[in-house]
Structure formats: C-alpha cells, structure tokens
Write a structure and sequence with these properties.
The complex is a heterodimer of chains A (474) and B (521).
Chain A (H helix, E strand, L loop, with lengths): L1 E2 L5 E2 L9 H11 L4 H8 L19 H12 L9 E2 L12 H7 L2 H5 L9 H18 L3 E2 L6 H16 L3 E5 L4 H11 L4 E5 L10 H7 L4 E8 L10 H10 L3 E6 L17 E5 L15 E5 L3 H4 L7 E5 L6 E5 L25 H37 L17 E5 L7 H10 L2 E2 L2 E2 L10 E5 L6 H16 L2
Parallel strand pairs in A: 3-14, 5-6, 5-7, 7-8, 8-9
Antiparallel strand pairs in A: 1-2, 4-10, 9-10, 11-12, 13-16, 15-16
Helix pairs in contact in A: 4-12, 6-12, 7-8, 12-14
Chain B lengths: L37 H7 L23 H13 L22 H7 L2 H4 L11 H18 L3 E3 L5 H18 L7 E5 L4 H9 L3 E5 L10 H7 L4 E7 L11 H10 L3 E5 L19 E5 L16 E5 L11 E5 L4 E5 L16 H40 L4 E2 L11 E4 L1 H7 L3 H9 L17 E4 L7 H20 L1 H5 L14 H4 L8 H7 L4
Classes of the chains: A alpha/beta (474), B alpha/beta (521).
C-alpha cells in the first residue's frame, strides 16, 4: 500500500488497484495470500532488495507537484524571453498552432505500435509524412523517422557500404561536430572514415582532395547542404560525378527548411538523403525535438537496406478503401534478429510523433509556403550578414559563398573572445552564436550565427547595435 | 466495484478519409510565412542573387495546397481513427507497458520553459533544465544502484546499441582483441541481438529451457569463453519468467572478463523490488517511455536512460550533467576520457526527462514499489482468469506458474481446433475497442499473444478486457466467419492483398509511387 507518514493509507490516483479490498479479492482469485507471497514465488528472495532506496517524499497532490515543477522550470530563460541566434542542429523556427494541436492530440500522443486497423489513423498520418517528405526531397522512398540526423547519417553511410560492398566513407570535414561524433561511433568497426578537406576561402569541398582519396574501396561520399557552417555546397553535381565514376554512392545530409528555394540533393546526384525534421514544426525542446529521416530511390537494392519501418498502401476487402502495412517487413530486426553476415542494424521506438508533426507542417506550408520560408530566411540572413559586417573588425561571412540560415562571424580582428561577447550579449537580452573556437580551431575566434523567419529587422538591428557597443566599447 | 461491460456495440470512428494529396486545391493556403520588411528587401533584394542558378529549385515541391481548417479536420479525423492509450484499456499491447501517462506532466512539457529552450544556450540560462536532468539521474541512481545515468539514447534499442558501443570501446581500450562475442537469450528483445552486430560482435542466443522457460544454463555455460565480450540480456524476458540464474550468469561472464548489460525494458514489475546492481550488472537502461510513464507518441520520441557503474562512467556518451557545489550551479561535463562520443546530438529527449522526473516525484518510494506490486498482482490475476476461462488458450512454459508483469500466451489449441489464427483473434478484438499484439522474433511460441496489464487499470477494466478475449475465443469456435472476416467495426476492413507490401513491383511506400504504379493521374 502507499502509506503516508502518519500511517494513513493513500490510494494513488495512478494505481487504482491499491484499494485494499480489491487487492484481497484479486489475491483470492490467484490463490495466494499476499502480493509478497506472489513475489516470493517469482523472484528468489535473496535477489529482492529489502532496504530503503532513499527517494524523496512524494508530492501526492497534483497541486504540490505543479508548484514543485514550476519552481524549477521557472529558472530557465527561454528563447521567447531572449533573442536567440543559435542554430547548429536545433533551430528556432515558428511552430504553427495546428502543429501543436495535432502533436498534443491524446490519440496520437499515447498510441504506440498498434495494427493497421485500430490505429489506422496513425498509419495514414505516417504514410502521409513519408509521402510529403518524398515530394520535398523529390525522392521516392522515405522511412518512418529515426532518432536524429546524426543517426540517420550513420545509417545512410552503412547502407551505402552494404549496397556497394565497400568499407570506406569519405566525409567532408565541415560537418557538424556533434554528428561527427555520432557517425564515428556508429560506423565503427565496419566502415573506415577518411576526411576530405575544404577550401579555406569558400568552405566548398576540396575536389582535388576528394579525387586523391576516392578509390574502389569508397562506399560513400558524405556532405551536408547547407553545411554546418552555413554555406551552401554548390559543387553537388561535380562531387556526384566523381563519386559515381568510382562506383561510390553519394549521401547528402540536408536541412529540409531550405528545400523550397534550394535544389534537393536528388537533383545533383544524391543516392541517399538524410537530415532532421526539427525545423518542420517541432519545438527545440532543449535539443529534444530532433527526428532523423532517410530517403532513397525505389530500387529494392536500396529499400531492402533501410533498417527502419516503412509504411505502404495496401488495399482492403472493400473496394476503394485505403489500408496500410509494413513494406518488406522482413528487412527489419523485428522480424529477423540477426542477419547472417553483415549487420543490417536495428529498429525500435524512435521519433514517430515528430514525423507526424512534420507532415502537418508540410501540408500547412504547401509549395508556396516552403518557397516563402526559404526566401525569407535567405533575405533575413543576408541582411544580418550585411549589417554585422558594418561593425569594425568583424568579418561576415567568413566564407565567400552563398549561405542559408547560418553563417560564420569572424571576431579575430576584435580584441574580444566569443565567450566574452556572448556573456555581454546576455545583458542585452540576446543569446549570441555558437562559439566555434573549440570545434574549428582553424577559424580562431569565430561564432556561428543563425537567422530564420522569426528574426525581424528590429531583432537583427538590435544584435548589430549590441555587438558594436560590446566590441568597440561604445 | 463499477460496471463491467463488454462493448459489443463499439464502433471506431470511420471517416473514409482521403490521402492528404487528394484534398489539394491550387491556390489554397494552410499558413502564411512572415514576409520580410520593406527595408530588408530594399537592402538585399530577393536574397537569392548570390545563388548560382543551378542551386535554385526550378520546380516547387509538389506538396498539396489546402486551407487551414481542412488540414486540421483531416488530422483530427486521423487521430480519431487511432486507438491511443488514453481511450482504451490498452493491456493487449504486451511488452509495451501501456500505462497511464499523467496529464499534469503534459502541462509541464508544453510550457515554453521546456519547448523554447535551445540546447546550446549559456548554462546560466538553463539551470532549471539541467537541474531536472541532474535530479532524475540521482533518483534513478537510487532505484538502480548504478552510479551515473545518460539520457542520450532515444529509445530502448538505441540504449542497447549504446551499451554495445561501451562494451566495444571498453575492450578496445584494454586491448582485448579476442573478445568478439556477445551472449544474449533467444527471448530477449530482437535488438539485444541486432544492435551488438552493428559494433561487429558475433551474437550467441541462449535458448530457453523447454520446460521451465528459464534460459538454458548448460547452454549458457558452454557459450561463455575467453571470447565473451559481454552479456546483453532482458530479465524478465517477454515471457516474464524471472531468470533465477541471473546472478550466476553475470558472475560467469565477469570471470572471463566480460561486461554485463541489462535490458530493463521489462522493469515495470520489478522497479523498487530488484536492483540491477544486485544482480551483477555493470550497466542497464530503463525505458522512460514505458516504465516511467512518458507517452509512446505512435513510436517515439522515447528515451532509454542508461545507467552505469563507476568504472564505466568514463565511457558514457558526452556530456553528462554535474553540479558544482562551490558555485551552486549545474553544468555540462564533457570530460569523460574514454567516451564513445555521442549517440545523438545534444543531451536527449528533454520532455521525456521532465515527465519521468515528475512521475517519480509524484509517487515517491512507496508509490514506486506499489507500481510494481500492483503490476504483478494485475498480471497474475488476468493470467489466472484467462487460463481458466478463455477457450483454446495456453501459456508458454506452463510449468512456471507465476509471472512478473506480462505473459506470452498461445492460441495453439484454438488454432488447431478451429483453423483460425492469432491474427484473426487480434482483428476481432478491435471490434470491442481493444488492441491485442502477437510478439516479435523469435517465433518459438506458436500463435502467440502478449498481455501486460501494468498498474494503471482497475479490476473492472481488466475484467472487461478478459470478457473481450473470452468472447472472441468463443466466437472462433461457434461463429468462426465473424472472426475470420473481422474487423467489422474498425476504421478499415481486413487487408486484402499483402503483395502490395512485399513485391517491389507493387509496393507503394509513398503517394507518388502509388500514383505511378497504379496508373492514377
């Protein structure tokens, strides 16, 4: 029983069968005298823990709990209270009200792994997510979402390795440092990574370096577009030609919010495309809003190497009625726990709800919305680069290239570190860009700034003025 | 007691809803995007002039064009055609721990104090978030006996992979090139076998003893060798037979220098009763979306909270959250010398952390124990009644009489008697407003189904579900056609042709493929 300090029995609202009379009746049906007796019949006594765990006293009323939680959460300062210029893998975008409405629907929120009948709506919503993403990416097959872009990239590279039966991946060295750590762990020991240099002026992949490293061992060439550092890799076609010439596959990680204005990677030769759904209607959630996607062509050789679930249309016994089911379910570890030779990875609970939300977002935006989104981000970030470059000693953008959403601000010619600048910016109610000095030491004292559709002219001007005051001591 | 009523007149919402692309009317808009101010336009034009023409998208994506109201209606209808745990007695999705997800916790995670946080904000501005992560870590340490938790894995399988990565790195650091094998049991989750293969291990599956359902101890002894890198195992497995040899097994693996990793996906009947460290485990994970009440979201986001003993702390993914007592502040600690790196960008699914923390704080020590006690009570009550009252049913490994918090049953007899299969019964249960689930690999229990009552349902609820199962089984004997052609009262009817899912020529994983392959416009 749940017993409160004074010895009074409390039946917790989450545990109905704590009512003593009900427990008695149920025990009688089972034929044991107590729950303890039941435990002793199931778990060897010596393995049961009889001590105290030392957990805090419970906050039994909902009101007490709410007070407690609010007290802690109120210590957070949000990106609504501060003006935030952080991106780098989680980005501040506007989340339409309808996205929240659907994400919070009890039926979607609390469903899980039900069959295509009683959970028909879930299957359709995820099939539609796949279909909407397929249009955005202009690719034919998209899986149910996985944990994050980093994991999706690891899988895409492993897929390429299995498809080509080769064991080397060439990855450009400008990718996200977070994803770098994920991929390195995920592909070891089957795939060896070789890093491709970038042009220090433009940020573009160094094609000579690529040519010198690519070989008949190369399974995949991986780059991101826009890159982690914000510039757009414009040599997609050349990279693909070099890769395909050697029989390697091209894997591109992409920010889907760019695809209203930028060509999707499939148009410049990508064989497998991955990325993150957070920008499509999912809140930042302290980095918890991530959901990875993997897309490829409708070729069984490729599809069969996707380790995740893929929902497909299936007809029912009633003419004209849509039903759904798992496409080639035998691919997955749910059906075959181990493939005899090479690992085909695994599948489990990942990020389905964020996929449904991304579908809602794409439906809301439509083709024009995605175009406008891309364009407004291009304009606002370009305006921000222009305004910040007016500040003496600040070089923006660091790379001579077109940019999308993010750009490197070079503070090397100022006498302030990014850390100092960011600390001071907080006094202005501003959260400055990501300090790159640790992950990209060659850039020295630089920061990665992010400007999206949510940043107004006033916001950008405010940032500019604050930076100028801090740097020039005005 | 309240009323127990089998819902024979149940009918799920059936909207016959078109695919979203079919709702498109060119020109309609679902939402407008903030356009730039005139002054910005004046400064930078359309913003696209720097782009080389070959990088500009020539043709807009073929997304549908739909007004806001219609989109809302579409998705609300789809939600109504989904049997979420909030609206059904969801004990039939065994292994999934479909317990109640308290609504108050949704209030917390919908707050901008959670949703509008960027992970790279200055630590001084996210002290509340770091405090909750740190405190949940402390609570889980107390419950498990482990010394440190990571919240990076995004689900149970992801946590298994993380454990396999730690085992891999541990032996790499120690130069143990000969440690190439992972031992698991055949009835552990398929990912316990599949994920270690990603780290290059060979996997040995220990079969269950056909009588008791315990892992075959002799086979296990034979499998343990100098090659053993580690053990990754469920206990209880999905049969919910508690493994009485578990401590012997972890000791044997330790003797040959292997690590022991615990898949605690089935922890609901043993939290507060058994501590993983006492069973000899070096690490293990709790599914916060199962045992700790975070809702399942149609298949995530979830969280596999991974706990380790002190000696494995340096291998955890970075960062972990620490508290600086001197300066009274929480901070992210990246200083883990042998870290496997990362398994996910940033720190994990923060809303799930918030919910799990609030759930534990609401229950406290006695409450958590009561969760396990009632989960076990409910399960054994349901099992006793099902075995006594449902026609054609059996249980896997009947010699082992009592189970922890779920049971893998079999309709083998029903299938032999009637020619129907578990799939038929599953579809019929839908007509009463229930889920019923089979199992995943391995298929060693014929015509399987799995029921996990959890602590969340009242006796009346459990009785209603049992009535449903009784009725469906009875019908299989007396009115087989009604079962065979089920569901009758669901959002859709029986799937007619699975070749559309298996045959590459026919499959249609996206709407565009459907249009292309089936000659639609």
């Amino acid at each position: 029983m749940v017993i409160k300090k004074d010895g009074k029995i409390i039946v917790h609202p989450y545990i109905p069968n704590s009512v003593p009379e009900v427990q008695e009746e149920m025990l009688k049906v089972i034929g044991v005298s107590s729950i303890e007796e039941l435990f002793d019949k199931i778990i060897p006594k010596e393995l049961q823990f009889k001590g105290k765990f030392g957990l805090p006293e419970p906050l039994l009323s909902e009101y007490e709990l709410k007070r407690h939680m609010n007290k802690i959460l109120s210590k957070n300062k949000t990106c609504e209270e501060y003006l935030c210029f952080l991106g780098g893998g989680t980005w501040p975008h506007y989340v339409p009200a309808i996205c929240d409405e659907i994400a919070n629907r009890a039926e979607f929120l609390t469903a899980y792994a039900g069959d295509p009948y009683e959970d028909h709506g879930r299957w359709q919503a995820l099939f539609e997510y796949q279909s909407l993403m397929a249009e955005l990416l202009d690719m034919d097959v998209v899986s149910v979402p996985i944990y994050s872009w980093g994991h999706a990239a690891g899988t895409s590279i492993r897929m390429a390795s299995r498809i080509t039966r080769r064991n080397e991946a060439l990855i450009v060295d400008t990718i996200s440092p977070e994803r770098r750590k994920i991929i390195e762990n995920y592909v070891e020991p089957h795939v060896k990574i070789k890093w491709i240099k970038h042009d220090p002026e433009t940020g573009m992949m160094d094609l000579e370096d690529l040519k010198s490293k690519i070989s008949s061992d190369t399974a995949a060439v991986y780059f991101e577009n826009p890159s982690y550092l914000g510039f757009i890799e414009v040599q997609g076609k050349e990279i693909s030609e070099i890769a395909h010439d050697k029989g390697a596959l091209v894997v591109v990680g992409v920010d889907p919010s760019s695809l209203g204005v930028l060509e999707p990677p499939s148009h410049y030769g990508a064989d497998i495309v991955c990325g993150d759904l957070q920008p499509l209607g999912n809140h930042m959630n302290f980095g918890g809003g991530l959901a990875g996607f993997v897309a490829t062509k409708d070729d069984p050789k490729f599809v069969k190497e996707i380790p995740y679930r893929i929902f497909g249309l299936a007809k029912t016994i009633v003419e004209g009625e849509y039903g759904f089911g798992d496409v080639a379910f035998e691919r997955t570890s749910f059906m075959v726990r181990e493939t005899p030779t090479e690992s085909k990875e695994f599948v489990g609970t990942a990020a389905a709800l964020w996929g449904i939300v991304a579908g809602v977002y794409l439906a809301l935006m439509g083709p024009k919305g995605m175009w406008e989104l891309g364009k407004t981000i291009m304009q606002r970030s370009k305006y921000a680069m222009k305004r910040l470059s007016e500040i003496e000693g600040v070089k923006v953008p660091r790379f001579k290239a077109p940019h999308f959403k993010e750009f490197v601000v070079d503070f090397n010619a100022t006498n302030k570190t990014v850390k100092e600048i960011n600390t001071r910016l907080l006094d202005y109610g501003i959260i400055g860009g990501i300090d790159l000095s640790k992950d990209f030491p060659e850039l020295g004292n630089s920061a990665l700034y992010c400007v999206t559709e949510i940043h107004t002219k006033e916001d950008i001007d405010k940032l500019r003025d604050a930076l100028e005051e801090i740097i020039l001591g005005r | 007691m309240g009323i127990v009523k089998l819902r024979k007149n149940f009918h799920e919402a059936k909207w016959d809803e078109p695919i979203i692309f079919e709702l498109s009317t060119p020109g309609e808009r679902g939402i407008l995007v903030p356009q730039v101010e005139k002054a910005i336009e004046k400064e930078v034009g359309d913003g696209l002039s720097d782009l080389p023409p070959h990088m500009i998208r020539k043709e807009l994506p073929k997304l549908p064009e739909i007004s806001q109201n219609r989109i809302l209606r579409h998705y609300l209808r789809l939600s109504q055609e989904t049997l979420g745990a909030d609206i059904n007695i969801d004990i039939g999705q065994g292994t999934c721990t479909m317990k109640y997800s308290p609504k108050i916790n949704e209030v917390f995670v919908r707050s901008p104090k959670v949703t509008e946080l960027h992970p790279l904000q200055d630590e001084s501005t996210v002290q509340g978030a770091l405090e909750i992560m740190y405190k949940l870590d402390l609570l889980l340490r107390k419950l498990s006996g482990f010394d440190r938790f990571s919240f990076q894995p995004g689900g149970g399988s992801h946590a298994i992979f993380t454990m396999a990565s730690i085992i891999y790195k541990y032996h790499k650091i120690h130069g143990n090139d000969h440690k190439t094998e992972i031992i698991t049991t055949l009835l552990s989750h398929p990912s316990d076998a599949a994920a270690p293969k990603v780290k290059g291990f060979n996997v040995i599956d220990i079969p269950p003893d056909p009588e008791t359902g315990y892992p075959d101890l002799e086979a296990f002894k034979e499998a343990v060798s100098e090659r053993t890198a580690g053990l990754i195992i469920c206990n209880p497995e999905d049969t919910e037979i508690f493994n009485p040899y578990i401590k012997e097994m972890t000791e044997m693996v330790h003797e040959v220098g292997g690590l022991c990793a615990y898949d605690m996906a089935n922890a609901n009947g043993i939290i507060g009763i058994v501590r993983p460290v006492d069973l000899g485990f070096d690490m293990g994970f709790y599914n916060l979306h199962k045992t700790f009440s975070s809702p399942h979201g149609c298949g995530g986001p979830g969280l596999g909270a991974l706990g380790v003993k002190k000696e494995l702390e340096p291998f955890l993914p970075v960062p972990v959250v620490d508290y600086d007592d001197k300066n009274k502040r929480y901070y992210l600690n990246y200083d883990l010398p042998y870290t496997i790196g990362k398994v996910r960008e940033f720190y994990g699914v923060f809303p799930v952390v918030v919910r799990a923390y609030a759930w534990i704080m609401s229950l406290g020590e006695e409450g958590i124990k009561e969760v396990a006690r009632v989960a076990v009570l409910n399960n054994n009550y349901v099992m006793t009644r099902i075995l006594k009252e449902v026609k054609g049913v059996g249980i896997s490994f009947p010699k082992t009489k009592y189970r922890v918090s779920q049971v893998r049953y079999t309709f083998e007899k029903l299938a032999k008697d009637t020619g129907l299969t578990i799939e038929d019964i599953i579809r019929r249960m839908v007509d009463f407003g229930f889920h019923l689930w089979t199992s995943h690999h391995p298929w060693i229990i014929p015509e399987p189904f799995t029921i996990e009552p959890t602590e969340s349902y009242s006796k009346d609820d459990l009785d209603e579900y049992i009535e449903g199962l009784k009725t469906a089984a009875q019908e299989a004997y007396e009115k087989p056609e009604i079962v065979k052609n089920a569901p009758h009262q669901s959002a859709i009817h029986k799937i007619a042709d699975i070749s559309m899912l298996e045959d590459p020529e026919k499959w249609a994983p996206t709407w565009r493929m459907y249009l292309r392959k089936y000659g639609k416009k």
